[in-house]
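This part of the workshop introduces the protein records we will be handling. A record pairs a protein's sequence with a compact description of its fold. As an example, a complete record with its sequence and its structure tokens follows.

_____
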Amino acid sequence: MNEIKGTILTVCVMLVATELISKIVPQNKMMGFVRSLMVTVILISVVSTWAGKDFELATLAEDYSQNEELEEYVNGQYESAAQQEISQYITGLLQTIQIESEKIEIFTDITADGSILIEKVSVTTRYASDKERARALLQNTVGNEFEVEVTANGS
């Protein structure tokens, strides 16, 4: 913004200087040279301001790509923390009915508005006899909000 103000000030000063010189210098040939010199200075000033803005736009593009990388990192950390929290909740829920899980996988997605959507929960129980009880508990708890998959290790 300061560069634009500086350019406008330069143009105004050059116009005033051209008028003053035209009053002082009576020769037409000298006046043509002075006017062309003033126009050249004004054009250089305007072009340098625009060239400076183009450089700043390139810098802004670099900043934007760095911000995208940071946003991806933060979203990944946010999604990982949410998955861990949901996994701990399901582990606690299964422990209330004395079911031990060997593995819990949470499949999530980050929506356009930045919220985390749970797509699927996959639980592997230690014993085959616990599989149906775990499925019933999880489906009764979460309803139809996301897919629940329960498998048994069979050991």
